[in-house]
Amino acid sequence: MMAELAGVLEQPASKGSREVVIEARDLGRRFGSLVAVDGLNLEVCRGEVFGFVGPNGSGKSTSMRMLLGLLEPSAGSAQVLGCSIPGDIEKLRPRVGYMTQKFSLYDDLSIFENLEFAAEVFGLEGLRRRDRLAEVMEEFQLEERRDQRPATLSGGWRQRLALAAATVHEPELLFLDEPTAGVDPESRRLFWEKLFELAERGATILVSTHYMDEAVRCHRLCVFRPGCPAAVASPQRLTAALEDRVVELWGEPTGEVIKILRQRPEVASLTQLGNRVHTLLESGESALAALDPLVEHLAARDLEQPGGEVVEANLEDALVALSQGEEIAG
Q1: pTM listed for this prediction
Q2: Domains in the chain and their CATH numbers?
Q3: Is the torsion defined by CA of 76, 16, 175, 218 positive or negative?
């Protein structure tokens, strides 16, 4: 069974009853002869946690910056919160929050002073500013650290402060560009809990990530190949497209198993997981049909205790298939 993965534009499951807050049509950006993004098409609904995933240089940050109005598109059009991009940027800015890859707050200001400055930049005044700062300090558990400088914080706390600053004005739409890079797993988990709290309160969140355990938590994903968005679909749909395409094989030594399997024409990619070799088969191959011949091939090469089993595909398998040019059948 052939699984085709590229070019899919999966609509939100409940699009008819939900407000579309981001709409991009054939959006593109060139830098001279370099095509950074070509033909981005997507719709994001209010309250959605929507992910951008793909390798470095594939256009995730460029796409995000175009939707924010920070980069003018070379082609196509976009509507963000009803504002035309790039024509209505000034109307859009007070309604969005942005957290960049690099920590961008001021190390010479205290935690509270950074938040106060952010509130001022976003136009919060008087009682509203005072009340909102108090709410944010409590919500993000920053009160005990209010006079601490960001440079003295751990990665997880710096991330928490950056998110607090990006949401101090209660934006309708939040852009997060690889916000958890270099942060420990526990801090990442707490960060994502906060994102879903924001989404439940009506915020829409667009987040780019390299972590597969984060990507699978998104309602839907836009998967990028360099210069070209490859698919827009839920994580579940992407992995379901690879049903009966993945096996795990083993034998001793594991390194020899990998060398042998790399020579097999039915193998698309390999990943070592402990003493197992997670194996994605080429499009058109069946895991059930291929398993026994692969195990027999390993046994014929005098490996110790060869074996294998059919397993479910994961999101990384889907990204590999997309990167190799596969397409999801409609």
Answers
A1: 0.88
A2: 8-234 (3.40.50.300), 244-311 (3.30.70)
A3: negative
